[in-house]
Amino acid sequence: MSNRAEIFEVGPRDGLQNEKTMIATADKVKLVDMLSVCGFSRIEVASFVSPKWVPQMADSADVLAGITRAAGCRYAALTPNMRGFDGAVAAKADEIAIFASASEGFSQANINCSVAESIERFVPVAEAAQAAGLPVRGYISCVTDCPFDGATPPEKVAEVARLLGDLGCYEISLGDTIGQATPETITTMLKAVLAEVSTGQLAGHYHDTAGRALDNIRASLELGVMVFDASAGGLGGCPYAPGASGNVATEAVAAVLNDAGYDTGLDLDALAKAAEFARTLRT
Ligand code: HMG
Ligand code: MG
User: What's the 237 CA to ligand 2 centre distance in angstroms?
Assistant: First the structure.
């Protein structure tokens, strides 16, 4: 078994998108630059969504233009539709992410369409990304619990994972959007998803609302998941998921993975400095 585990840093996107006070573009660039020296292979820095829906991400192109890119690191952007895809390409994002939900209520609240409609909308985006040679990551929100629909059936997560895999997503990130999962519900959900896609294609994206994200990561490691999304300083939340608080903190995940014997390849001193700066951006 490889002892490598990876943290996908999502702080500049998922961490900051929910901040009510507009954060200066220069501070976002500074955060990304501080994260870039930590040794991440992938950092999500931008989101080409409607600025009416998520005002904080309106300067995504400027952030991508302002950062100092580290060799070996891919800078990712969310793209809900072709307009977002075109924006991400123009801003030279290295990879894109399409984002679906396993629950209808959250799909409507977050991207204003049903789950099936969202998959249809992602088809041209995934095709265009493949034509442009850009890796596509897929998110599934509300993999165990939805703030609108209650408990999410594991087979629904498995179905959406298969659809995203069919669209060519190289990795599928499983979101506990409102941080209500338990090791038991995560394990049940993962077992259902693993019937459709392989463990090497999965990432865990756990918010820490109830303080169980690290336990959920340990449960996921047991089933072979080796990639976890996290946000330096534990910033974050989704504006369309009532009750969603921060992503699990990158520095806490790094400590758990190190304690469990996994090598994350991260410079923990540089990470501590980035996390400290990230926390100053919280309003
Ligand atoms: P809509 O209103 O159904 O779509 O929104 P529309 O096509 O009618 O567009 C509405 C307006 O937005 C129009 O402008 C469009 O031009 C504009 P208007 O005519 O009103 O002036 N527009 C855009 N502007 C910029 N970039 C674009 C774009 N597309 C349309 N790409 C839409 C549909 C998807 C656009 C909207 O619902 C939206 O932007 N939603 C994004 C919500 C979001 O970003 N949520 C947070 C990210 S997801 C998340 O955090 C979960 C995750 O972390 C995993 C987890 O934790 O579970 C990933
Ligand atoms: Mg999230």
Answer: 6
If we measure between CA atoms, which residue out of 142, 171, 135 comes closest to residue 157?
142
Q: Where are the beta strands (DSSP E) in the chain?
A: 6-9, 42-47, 74-78, 95-101, 136-141, 145-146, 150-151, 171-176, 202-206, 227-230
Q: Is 114 in the pocket of ligand 1 (CB under 6 A)?
A: no
Cα–Cα distances in Å, from 40 out to 22, 44, 77, 106, 279? 26, 10, 15, 30, 19
d(CA 271, CA 260): 19
Q: Is 204 in the pocket of ligand 1 (CB under 6 A)?
A: no
CA of 140 to the centre of ligand 2 (A): 9
Task: Give the span between the Cα atoms of 244 and 240, in whole angstroms.
Answer: 9
The protein residues having their C-beta less than 5 angstroms from ligand 2 (an ion) are 14
- pTM of the complete model: 0.97
Identify residue 136 by its one-letter amino acid code: V
| pLDDT tens column, 179-214 | 999 999 999 999 999 999 999 999 999 999 999 999
Atom of ligand 1 nearest to the CA of 244: 56
User: Per residue in 79-112, pLDDT tens?
Assistant: 999 999 999 999 999 999 999 999 999 999 999 9
Active site residue 238: yes
- Dmax (CA) for the chain in angstroms is 46
Tell the residue nearest (CA) to atom 30 of ligand 1. Answer: 50
